[in-house]
Design brief:
The chain contains three helices and four strands. By secondary structure, it is of the alpha+beta class. The protein folds into two domains: 39 residues, no CATH class; 66 residues. A four-stranded antiparallel beta sheet has the order 1-2-4-3. The longest helix is centred in the N-terminal third of the chain and has 20 residues.
Length: 123
């Protein structure tokens, strides 16, 4: 019975000699946990969604070598297409230099309110 408690104590305090069967069992259990636990345990480790500050511009790659600029809706006061285009350029050009606005899209929340604009530009 003392031998069993000595073995358990060795597992808890990690006192088994390297290369022994007990040491190999401990390492195997740890590796199994590392590789198999994520399949069964939901750690909820999703990346935080980035919400821009009112004056912040988020720049994302467009997948074609260009960039998409996300501008908070509070930075754009105009409601007509020409006014929105001008204000988007007013916000983007100090960051990117002189650019041509190819297109933009309005991003809305669940209630249908405009939260930000995505703008595709070209130099």
């Amino acid at each position: 019975m003392d031998k069993i408690w000595e073995t358990i104590r060795g597992f808890v305090w990690w006192t088994h000699e390297r290369g022994s069967v007990h040491y190999d069992v401990m390492v195997t259990v740890i590796l199994l946990f590392i590789f198999l636990a994520p399949l069964k345990i939901n750690f909820n480790d999703k990346p935080a969604q980035r919400v821009p500050h009112q004056s912040e511009v988020v720049v994302l790659p467009d997948g074609r070598g260009g960039f998409v600029y996300e501008i908070a809706a509070s930075a754009v006061g105009a409601r007509d297409d020409a006014g929105i285009r001008n204000e988007l350029l007013r916000v983007i050009e100090p960051i990117a230099g002189e650019v041509e606005l190819l297109r933009y899209e309005t991003v809305v929340d669940r209630r249908g309110r405009t939260t930000r604009y995505r703008a595709w530009v070209r130099r």
